Amino acid sequence: MDLPVMPPVKPMLAKPAARIPPGMSYEAKWDGFRAVVHRDGDEIEIGSRTGKPLTRYFPEVAAALLAELPPRCVVDGEIVIARDGRLDFDALLERIHPADSRVRTLAERTPASFVAFDLLALGDDSLMDVPQSGRRSRLVEALAGVRPPVHVAPATTDLAVARQWFERYEGAGLDGVVAKPPDIPYRPDERLMVKVKHERTADCVVAGFRHHKSGPVLGSLLLGLYDAAGRLQHVGVSASFTMRRREELVEELAPWRMDSAEGHPWQEWADAEAHTAGRMPGAPSRWSGKKDLSWVPLRPERVVEVAYDHMQGDRFRHTARFRRWRPDRTPSSCTYAQLEEPVRYDLADVLAAPPAPA
Fold first, then answer.
1. Does an H or E element contain 110, and which?
2. What kind and span of H or E run contains 145?
3. C-beta atoms surrounding 130 within 10 Å
4. How far apart are CA 267 and CA 4, in angstroms?
């Protein structure tokens, strides 16, 4: 492979904001695997956000990119999987599997797509120093004839349209909106863009915690919600605390600490079969590797209000943010019924928006 921009390339990133800023180019924020694609003739490499290759996990995407992309190019985008008109991140996670036969079976059963939103090189030309507006124009021109499962991300410079996308596209499983200053060059691993994500709150049961990697202080709170059958399901964690607050929380939660998990709603977490019937902490993960997933059980009696962006199935998609304790709420009232359900919006309608230069 001999390209003006060689792998690995860490993608340019975005910093969070509370509101969509004016005077920028706007795109939907895709909930998938960020991927930088290098193509040189018959050679193709799909790199992850960390630079590690994803090619073997998405053979159908690699084949489509070879068929649809220009012969020599470097494209930044997102690998996504849709089910029933919505993005499905869990289906992506299933692909990270050591068995090639399993990967190929899933590629046929739940094929992935690639959404392109930036062009880093074309032919012999590096576009890294070209302003974003210029790269966008080159992207739209170079990929004008692409067919599914390869797409060009819709974009707009109209703030009103971006606000509509922010409200509507969540129903298709998208994360929010990304705003790109039109004059910025492409700078790997730098947060030069802006992301605006949805935020809601939920009252959750605190049913345990994990220790921090640095020592005997709290690393994360383990959060639960009761399902319709009255089972406490593990829905995620809250983990962003100062070191001083981590120390305080260990002491603060001491009265609810259990000597063992016996009698706890998640007492069977070490049994692999138990995870098929509900969500519990400590499940093995190909992503965590050797990471210590042991946890300290607490009597499920304390309620905390957390902020979250959106749900992925029956759990929080990202780490929830601690807001406050809720002594006025009973644990039994912490159910899935409190969660707001976004209005459904078909992903096909998102991709049907014209990919005009922005």
1. none
2. none
3. 17
4. 55
Q: Does domain 13-198 have CATH number 3.50.50.60?
A: no
What number of H helices and E strands is found in the chain?
7, 20
Report the SS3 class of residue 278.
coil
Q: Residue 7 burial by CB count (10 A; 0-12/13-18/19+): exposed, middle or buried?
A: middle
Q: What are phi and psi of 245, to 5 degrees?
A: -65, -35
* Topology of domain 200-338, CATH: OB fold (Dihydrolipoamide Acetyltransferase, E2P) (2.40.50)
Round to whole Å and give the CA distance between 3 and 120: 11
Sign of CA dihedral 50, 55, 61, 67: positive
pLDDT tens track for 118-149: 999 999 999 999 999 999 999 999 999 999 99
Task: Kindly report, residue by residue over 268-286, the tens digit of the pLDDT.
Answer: 875 544 444 455 554 444 4
Q: Which helix (H) or strand (E) holds 209?
A: strand 200-212
Rounded to the nearest 10 degrees, the angle between the axes of helix 100-109 and helix 59-68 is: 60
pLDDT above 70 for 252: yes
pLDDT-wise least confident of 83-87, 225-229, 263-267, 292-296: 292-296
**pTM (global) more than 0.70:** yes
DSSP code for 6: P
Active site residue ranges: 29
352 burial (CB, 10 Å; 0-12 / 13-18 / 19+) is exposed
Interatomic CA distance for residues 299 and 331, integer angstroms: 11
Q: Please state, in angstroms and as integers, the Cα–Cα distance from residue 133 to each residue in 20, 23, 183, 257, following that order.
A: 18, 12, 7, 55
Q: CA torsion 204→210→216→219, rounded to 10°?
A: -70
CA distances from 183 to 27, 131, 180, 194, 319 (A): 16, 5, 9, 14, 32
C-alpha 358/C-alpha 352 separation (Å) is: 16
Phi and psi at residue 15, in whole multiples of 5°?
Answer: -100, 145
The answer to whether the 13-198 and 200-338 domains have the same CATH topology is no
Q: Where are the domains of the chain?
A: 13-198, 200-338
Token reading at 311: 């749900």
Q: Over the stretch 60-85, which tens digit does the pLDDT of each residue have?
A: 999 999 999 999 999 999 999 998 88
